[in-house]
Structures are given as structure tokens and as C-alpha cells.
Amino acid sequence: MSSYLNSYGAGEDERNRLVKRIVVSLLVLASVSSLSWYLLKNHHQEGVVKSFIAAVKAGDYQGAYRIWGCTTPKACSGYDFKKFLGDWGGPGASKPEDTPDFSVLALTDSQSCNNGVLLTIEVNKTRTEKLWVDKSGDAMSFSPYPICPHKSPWSIMLHRTVGRLRKPLLH
């Protein structure tokens, strides 16, 4: 004769294993999604700068100037093509020590700021440039800031630690 309470708790272990699997799966999915978003959130702006670097390396200074955002003479009245050539090499480079070394010229860091992305380019062994790419229009310029303004200590620490995972994606 079986009593009423003999089957009490049957299936409880299986249900607990199922709940644990679901919780762990959701945590892993959230972690992988968050890390992927963090690593790829500046992908478009990094692509703009990579195409700029490729144009400079190829010697297509007119194309690089267009990528910079100077499609019409009025668009870059403060940064004419002669000044551009002086900064990025080619005919009319101002100082030989500032000319890009194509074996070194590469994107080395990317940091998201409020309405833009601060990107670091190693131009040669002695020169590093900070570039600003506007998120809304992809216009490039020299960065007005050495680091992103108004960053919390938490986001600075996150960039200095987890941001290192982004470096292989930049090259």
C-alpha cells in the first residue's frame, strides 16, 4: 500500500538540473553578446580609418583626402590639400621625420566617445596621431582630445583591460 507522500519530490532533481542549465546558458549568452558588442561597436569607424590608411599607403592622396571628409573645397576650408599632403606624406611633405612609415602606419587603438570615436594611429616610430571620426557622418579630423572626455573610471578601466582584446581586430 503506497502512501500519499511516497511520490513527494519525485522529479525535483531533474527540474533543478534543467533550471541550472537554463540559467547558466542565459549567463553565457549574455556574456558573449556583451563582449561581442563591446569589441565590434566601433567597427564602422575603424573601417573608415583603415580605408584612409590603405589609400595613404597606396599613394592615393586624393582618395585619402575624400575619405577625410573633404569632398568639396568648401568642406575643408581650414585644411587644404597642401596641408593634408604635409601631414600625410606624398609630394609636398613638410618635414621628413613626420612622413608616414608604411611599414608602421596602422590603427592601434579605438575608443568610443559620446558622438564620435577616438582612434589612435601609429604613423612612424616617433609620431602617433589621435583621429576623431564622427559617428553621424563619418567625417574625420584630428582629435580635439588626448583622451575621451567625461569618461568614468569604470569605463577607463574597461577600455584598458578588455579593450586589449580589440587590438588584434584593428590590424
Overview of the molecule:
The protein has helices spanning 12-40, 43-58, 61-68, 81-88, 153-161, 167-170, and strands at 106-112, 116-122, 128-134, 140-142. It is α+β, with helices and mostly antiparallel strands and 171 residues long. A hairpin with a 5-residue loop joins β2 (116-122) and β3. The radius of gyration is 25 Å and the shape is elongated. The model has no long low-confidence stretch (mean pLDDT 84).
Characteristic key phrases:
171 residues; alpha+beta; elongated
Gross morphology is elongated
Largest sheet: 4 strands, antiparallel
Distance between the termini: 74 Å
| Discrete helix count | 6
How many structural domains? 2
Supply the helix-strand structural class: alpha+beta
Listing every helix as H and every strand as E from the N terminus to the C terminus, the arrangement reads HHHHEEEEHH
Question: How many individual β-strands?
Answer: 4
Helix content: 40-55%
> Which stretches are low in confidence, meaning pLDDT under 50 for 5 or more residues running?
none
Neighbour order of strands in the largest sheet: 1-2-3-4
Rg over alpha carbons:
25 Å
Which range does the strand content fall in? 5-15%
Q: What is the average of the pLDDT values?
A: 84
Structure summary:
The chain has 171 residues and is α+β, with helices and mostly antiparallel strands.
List the helices and strands and how they pair.
Elements: H1 12-40, H2 43-58, H3 61-68, H4 81-88, E1 106-112, E2 116-122, E3 128-134, E4 140-142, H5 153-161, H6 167-170
Antiparallel strand pairs: 1-2, 2-3, 3-4
Helix pairs in contact: 2-3
